[in-house]
Amino acid sequence: TKAVTVTTLGALRAAGEKITMLTCYDASFASLMDRCGVEVLLIGDSLGMVCNGHHSTLPVTVAELAYHTAAVARGSKSAMIVADLPFGAYGTPEQAFANAVQIMQAGAHMIKIEGGAWLAETVRFLTERAVPVCAHIGLTPQSVHQLGGYKVQGKTTESADQLKADALALQAAGASMVVLEAIPSQLGKEVTELLTMPTIGIGAGPDCSGQVLVMHDLLGVFPGRKARFVKNFMEGQTSIDAAVGAYVAAVKDGSFPALEHCF
Ligand code: KIV
Ligand code: NA
After folding, report:
1. Identified catalytic residue from 181, 190, 235, 260
2. Predicted confidence (pLDDT) at residue 1 exceeds the cutoff of 80
3. What is the average pLDDT across 51-70?
4. Which GO terms describe its cellular component (predicted)?
5. Three-state DSSP class for 180?
6. CA-based Rg of the chain, rounded to a whole angstrom?
7. Under a CB-based contact definition with an 8 Å cutoff, are residues 37 and 18 in contact?
């Protein structure tokens, strides 16, 4: 199969075909997901929680993300590889670029950073220097101590308007894609209609251009609290291949997320 690029993602959005994305942290799962047709593999800083047992994503380092990114890059053939910049790694555009270089040289095709319009300058700085950027707005887990917990965002008119302004500013600055986490479905739909870049939802409703889940949630192996937007795709399946295949099929045909996974 052909390599998934930033051009492919734009074409999928334009064609109205849903984009499938999963987190991935090692070569064996990268190979499996690639084989199952997952278009985007995300080396999320969620690895601090699901692989290392930390209670938040804050302790994750650039070196850890680079290590896991290299493993995923070795295991996958055609998927697009996106990796997070961790907490504290993009306080200035220059710092973001230096850390993005580490992650790109480990094998990422795009980096993801959490935050709104305040990051526009950083997005421009990175994209001018050939680092494609996926933005991440709504519930941004690196801000958990600022937000006062893992809470649904964009519920008031004021915060919904702010989120739309953030999305537009990040797109204008050169972002290629945006993750929308834990926002009302209606806002996920409105933001998607407002933008030309693809939106990838996790708890943002069925109208985003694509969906993402943490692989440990999809397989039902994460022992922590389950968010509303999580679905265990191992249920009713007898192999991991079949569970990932069921996820891809459910995203493509629009049956995931269902109402019960949405805000
Ligand atoms: O780190 C992560 O897994 C993420 C996804 C939940 C979007 O950022
Ligand atoms: Na993340």
Report:
1. 181
2. no
3. 97
4. cytoplasm
5. strand
6. 17
7. no
